[in-house]
Amino acid sequence: MSPTTPEKANILIVDDMEENLVALEAVLGSLDQQLVRARSGEEALKAMLRQEFAVVLLDVLMPGMDGFETAASIKRLDQTKDVPIILLTGTDADTDYIYRGYAIGAADFLTKPFDPWLLRTKVNVFLDLHRKNRQLAAQAEQLRRLLVGERTPAESTGPAGSPEPAESAGDALDEPRGGAPGTGAAADSGERLAEITERLAQIELQLRDADGTESADLADRIAELERAVGNLRVRRDT
């Protein structure tokens, strides 16, 4: 069986000039990610509402809605507010641009002509963060399913593809995996709850160390699950 190919992340590049878009594509092509073009702030916002992006590279000087206005609009929307933005500007830009960019929530700032290695390095930082957050979110969802006794689509079918009945949370904790009914059920369920609690705590710590509102919100949800597991363990021990 061939290994699963990692899903490519989307990178949005926004510039009103064709030559600048071509240059960005040439520099970022070696990252082997999905590059999406936008020629205006309005087009960028539409693209971000259609799909998820790991990072946005946004030119500041554009006709109509400029980069600052576009970035501010991105940060106002719940769906896109956590997407990191790298602002791009020319060498003649006023130093106040930097302060203005950070004030509206931009994650970084680069001056054209930019160094290709530096640009790829900065983008890679946000790609790694994006992958980490997706992995942690997937782990949290797996643990939530384990806690409530749900199964993933792959687990819901038997070897021949026939559906198997979903196991409830009570069945998962109370029914032993073989032997006489009831033998070792309490010990098995106690060990399982302890394992779930430990894994939840590890994920929560990783999320607390990560940056971004999305990571903090997910960590709070994990903490709630930890408390729920703790209450369940107390009820079973009494």
Automatic annotation (TrEMBL):
All copies of domain Response regulatory, residue ranges: 10-127
Region (Disordered): 149-193
Keyword Phosphoprotein: yes
Designated name of the protein: Response regulator
Biological process (GO), any one: phosphorelay signal transduction system
Annotated positions of the 4-aspartylphosphate modification: 59
Pfam families: Response_reg
Source species: Streptomyces albiflavescens
PANTHER family per record: RESPONSE REGULATORY DOMAIN-CONTAINING PROTEIN (PTHR44591:SF3), STRESS RESPONSE REGULATOR PROTEIN 1 (PTHR44591)
InterPro entries: Bact_response_regulator, CheY-like_superfamily, Sig_transdc_resp-reg_receiver
KW Iron-sulfur (keyword) present: no
Keywords: Phosphoprotein
